[in-house]
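Hey, can you fold this one?
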Amino acid sequence: MQRCLRTPWLCSNILATARPLSTTSILAKNLPARPKPPPEDEIEEAFVKGSGPGGQKINKTNSAVQLKHIPTGIVVKSQLTRSRSQNRKHARELLAQKVDDLLHGDQSRAAVVGEVKKKKADSAAKKSRRKYKKLEEEKAAAGPSLNQDIVQEEGVAGEPKATETVNPDYENGKQ
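Sure. Predicted structure:
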């Protein structure tokens, strides 16, 4: 990094020839745009006291934000951070998502993203099933395994194997 700071031409050449580190932009599906928050005249905003873990401070300050969408009656509350402005932003994002889910149903962004994630998970599970099924078939085709043969020869611990011979004189203390 320090070399790049001393010789900026070196960094520009490296960056020009470097490959991207991820392929997510290439492989990304066209998802619906994130929903825009409703207009301010359709929202009732209230700052309320927080609740839950955080002790006395969170219970005394009005940093939690509660928004109500007047046309639909949807109410959301955000107390994600200690900052009132960040909570306002987060609450508006939540409200926009809830309104989008209500208005668009299966075509909402959350539903489409859920379908994409479900397809990926199903594909991964199918690939895993295929892999283990193939391994089982290979084991079955190879015949009995060596581990099973060894277990059968050893017998029960403390007892002589079927192939061992025991000298009766040695057991009685005579040699």
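Strands lie at 43-48, 64-69, 75-78. Let me know if you want another pass with a different chain boundary.
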